[in-house]
Amino acid sequence: MRPVVIAHRGASGHLPEHTLQAKTLAFAMGADYLEQDIVATRDDQLLVLHDIHLDGVTDVASRFPTRARPDGRYYARDFDLAEVLTLTVHERTDEHGRQVFPGRRAYSGGEFRVHTLARELQLVADLNASDGRTAGIYPEIKNPAWHHQEGVDITTLVLEELTRFGYVQHTDPAYLQCFDEQELRRVRHELGSQLKLVQLIGEDDWSSEATNFAAMRSTRGLKKLAATVDGIGPWVNRLYRHRKGDGNITDSGLVRRAHAQGLVVHPYTFRSDALPEGFATLDELLHFTVDSLVIDGLFTDFPDAVGRFLQNRSEGS
Ligand code: CA
Description:
- It is a single chain.
- The protein has helices at 20-28, 60-63, 81-84, 117-131, 144-149, 154-164, 181-190, 213-216, 219-226, 254-260, 282-292, 303-316, and strands spanning 4-7, 33-40, 46-48, 136-141, 175-178, 196-201, 231-234, 240-242, 249-251, 264-265, 297-300.
- By secondary structure, the protein is of the alpha/beta class.
- α1 (20-28) runs parallel beside α4.
- The longest helix is centred in the middle third of the chain and has 15 residues, at 117-131.
- The radius of gyration is 19 Å and the shape is globular.
- The site of calcium ion (CA) has 3 residues, from β2.
């Protein structure tokens, strides 16, 4: 079976993440799904942006130097959409201004911009209509509890926008993803969404959020998730164990346990320039996860490289 290719923030290995250019390239590379991370502005507009902060990928600090919060960060929630649209997007940098992926192209032009969820959904609709091939969408509600504290119900706004663009039924080409287990339960059982849902599973030490990821990976945890969601999006490193001495790789059993509960498994993030421990090449990682573990899909910054692997694999069989 061929796993679905999810373009993680677009073809973000080649163009700045979450730009319309990165999404268009991912579509052209044949990605099955295009990912949207979603955060809200001060005027309750939905942006396609990975962080609740703007400073990792834009020139906000130089454009609006007085607008940081006491922690030094520039929050999308503190800016109106009109202000955000004037910012220039660059390749992701860390707090020291160094590129997070040093080997990636540092585009210096001002052609890259932040855009709204509506703009991207319209682009996907236009590309699908023009090409005849349907790429799906894979929106993520970012930090719903934090947004709630900030006075906005981001989840309801996202569901309204998805409905407006025709993403309503379980069979529609969309997966809605979130790290927040409680919010996904709300989406399914309180707000009544029929869309396919994916529980993202992180590491408990990544943030202070209450969600207990370790428990989710157990049979009992997965069974509980299956009452609400259609699949899980685990960190790829949790699919296997790597023995330090001889480098031996063995199955952690997570994919099998999830499949036993009827859940699809879409791990993140497959990058040729940032491989998980124990793998020397992207193809090695793909061979193990696709052919041995039989994952159902994967998030990648390089939909072209993954597409080539899958093409060669189908020709070889
Ligand atoms: Ca995401």
